[in-house]
């Protein structure tokens, strides 16, 4: 599992970590950024720039706590830059905290740095190397092994102060102890797994992790109790964390042909390494640190009040005070093997031909060099570099913000210009910003005449002012504009984020005319039906009247006939 971990995040259209990565060791697939483990140099830039805090560092805290719980003998190699990171009245306090937590013993990594300086001094005197590049910074080492392998022979074949000190502690206190390095560096987590020095360091705790640990334990660094800081003969080695600190530890009477120069910051390191690879630099002793401010600006340090300037002042004061203490209790002359050899870890990607590159670029609208903006928004310096990354499946084709913006604008423009409905955009003062051709045709507008004018100069409708004041949308409301003899169905929308008011207007004049005609026809039909009904009623009434008269006459005739028959029979009374 990698040292830098990514959690799922909304990486779409961000690319900030890709832009910050100096070696483009971050791939982007399915809208998610991922580190390419065998290309990463662990500079930590992606950790600092991620706006969503989607990246974290693998922690060894639980492993170290387990060592302590099992009563292991756990020794600490503490980077001297701790004095710049932690605010405390007495620098011995941090030693006491670690001892109280159960660590067996605490020493400064500067003890190992003093031995590394001796090795550098020996190489300077031998004068056999074209250039001498220091190898105390594991990120700088990884940068050369992965991207400038031609310079491996110019790297000082010496371990870092961390490895040197760990070996020295094991030589003095026994091979079975556990060694924990505490410092400002992310890439130390990878260095401790170096198979050349397997087992030298068991765990890494960064200053950031230590600060969180102390906070969780409620540690007060201004408390009175303090521990003992072990001194050693070459206290100037405590300058190692500062820019130029390694050079400062070298003997002033170096008697060497090499010119000493300090380089900090990974971009500057890359620039110098490129020049060295081209043979432009010779006979230089190059102190190289990937972090700006060297280890005082380490990748795993929480923000320091006063920044690098204050951090350097605190380190200088610490070195001066340690000289006054005079406690030379640690033997720093232990003979251990400090040699180191380096390996070409570069990856040789196949290079696409020119036709393939142009084909990839053409898919995102870059049909000519004039259209290659090289804006760097995708994280790559040039459009060609991005196209090559797409070929190697490290980047997605549409990771091009100018192209996607042009495409989105093109699609939206097609929709806006093609729709038969009128669209007007107003600012919060109800002044017209723009309108589409349908609006121009519907209301007979001229571009020069109305842009910037108040909407009431064109459309006299109080709904606009209502939306302006309330922020509430008015949807699908019919309105008749007498000036244009137009009946419309309009929606007026307030777009808060853009501070715009959008009017979507559909001409329904023909529909309204048809509705009126249909209404008239229906009204006439109703009138006719009513007249028919009334006529039928009159006819019915007349028929009923006639039927009534004839029925009465019939009844009378039948009654008379009845009486006549009965009279003839002698029965009528």
Index terms:
573 residues, 16 strands, 4-stranded parallel beta sheet, 5-stranded antiparallel beta sheet, Beta-Lactamase, alpha/beta, 3 domains
How would you explain this protein's 3D organization?
With 573 residues, the protein is an alpha/beta fold. The protein contains 20 helices and 16 strands. The chain has three domains: 267 residues, no CATH class; 70 residues, no CATH class; 87 residues, PAS domain (Beta-Lactamase), CATH 3.30.450.20. A five-stranded antiparallel beta sheet has the order 13-12-16-15-14, sandwiched between helices. Strands 6-5-8-9 form a four-stranded parallel beta sheet, with helices on both faces. Strands 7-11-10 form a three-stranded parallel beta sheet, covered by helices on one side. Helix 6 packs across helix 8 and helix 14 packs across helix 15.
- The shape is elongated
Low-pLDDT residue intervals, each spanning 5 or more residues: 326-330
Which range best describes the helical content: under 10%, 10-25%, 25-40%, 40-55%, 55-70% or over 70%? 40-55%
Assembly context of the chains: single chain
By DSSP (H or I, 4+ residues per run), the number of helices equals 20
Percentage of residues in strands:
5-15%
- Biggest beta sheet attributes: 5 strands, antiparallel
When the domains are counted, the total is: 3
Kindly report the spatial arrangement of strands forming the biggest sheet.
13-12-16-15-14
SSE-based structural type: alpha/beta
User: Kindly state the mean pLDDT as a whole number?
Assistant: 86
What is the straight-line distance between the termini?
A: 132 Å
Number of strands: 16
Question: How big is the Rg?
Answer: 44 Å
């Amino acid at each position: 599992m990698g040292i830098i971990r990514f959690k799922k995040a909304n990486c779409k259209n961000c690319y900030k970590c890709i832009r910050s990565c100096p070696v483009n060791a971050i791939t982007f697939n399915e809208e998610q950024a991922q580190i390419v483990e065998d290309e990463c140099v662990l500079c930590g830039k992606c950790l600092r720039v991620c706006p969503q805090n989607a990246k974290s560092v693998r922690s060894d805290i639980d492993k170290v706590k387990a060592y302590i719980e099992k009563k292991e003998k756990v020794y600490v190699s503490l980077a001297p830059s701790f004095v710049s990171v932690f605010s405390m009245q007495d620098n011995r306090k941090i030693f006491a905290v670690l001892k109280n937590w159960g660590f067996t013993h605490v020493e400064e990594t500067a003890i190992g740095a003093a031995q590394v300086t001796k090795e550098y001094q020996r190489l300077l005197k031998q004068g056999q190397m074209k250039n001498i590049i220091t190898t105390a910074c594991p990120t700088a080492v990884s940068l050369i092994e992965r991207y400038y392998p031609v310079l491996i022979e110019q790297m000082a074949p010496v371990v870092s102060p961390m490895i040197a000190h760990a070996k020295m502690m094991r030589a003095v206190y026994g091979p079975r102890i556990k060694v924990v390095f505490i410092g400002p560096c992310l890439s130390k987590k990878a260095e401790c797994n170096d198979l050349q020095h397997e087992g030298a360091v068991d765990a890494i705790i960064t200053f950031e992790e230590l600060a969180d640990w102390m906070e969780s334990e409620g540690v007060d660094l201004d408390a009175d109790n303090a521990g003992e800081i072990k001194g050693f003969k070459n206290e100037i080695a405590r300058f190692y964390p500062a820019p130029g600190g390694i050079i400062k530890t070298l003997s002033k009477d170096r008697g060497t042909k090499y010119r000493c120069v300090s380089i900090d910051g990974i971009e500057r390191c890359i620039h110098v390494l490129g020049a060295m690879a081209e043979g432009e630099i010779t006979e230089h002793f190059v102190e190289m640190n990937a972090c700006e401010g060297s280890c005082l600006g380490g990748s795993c340090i929480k923000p320091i009040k006063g920044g690098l300037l204050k951090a350097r002042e605190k380190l200088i004061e610490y070195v001066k005070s340690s000289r006054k203490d005079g406690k030379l209790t640690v033997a720093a002359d232990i003979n251990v093997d400090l040699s180191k050899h380096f390996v070409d870890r570069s990856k040789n990607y196949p290079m696409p031909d020119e036709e393939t590159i142009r084909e990839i670029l053409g898919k995102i609208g870059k049909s000519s060099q004039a259209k290659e903006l090289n804006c760097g928004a995708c994280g790559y310096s040039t459009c060609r570099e991005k196209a090559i990354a797409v070929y190697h499946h490290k980047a997605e084709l549409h990771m091009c913000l100018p192209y996607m913006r042009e495409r989105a604008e093109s699609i939206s423009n097609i929709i806006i210009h093609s729709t038969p409905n009128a669209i007007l955009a107003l600012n919060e003062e109800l002044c017209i910003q723009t309108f589409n051709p349908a609006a121009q045709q519907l209301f007979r507008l001229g571009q020069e005449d109305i842009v910037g004018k108040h909407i009431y100069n064109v459309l006299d409708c109080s709904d606009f002012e209502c939306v302006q004041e309330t922020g509430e949308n008015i949807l699908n409301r019919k309105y008749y504009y007498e000036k244009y003899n137009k009946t419309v169905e309009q929606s007026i929308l307030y777009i808060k984020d853009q501070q715009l008011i959008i009017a979507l207007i559909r001409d329904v004049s023909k529909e309204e005319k048809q509705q009126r005609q249909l209404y008239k026809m229906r009204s006439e039909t109703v009138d006719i039906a009513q007249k028919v009904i009334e006529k039928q009623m009159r006819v019915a009434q007349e028929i009923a009247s006639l039927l009534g008269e004839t029925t009465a006459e019939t009844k009378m005739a039948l009654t008379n006939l009845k009486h006549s028959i009965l009279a003839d029979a002698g029965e009528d009374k």
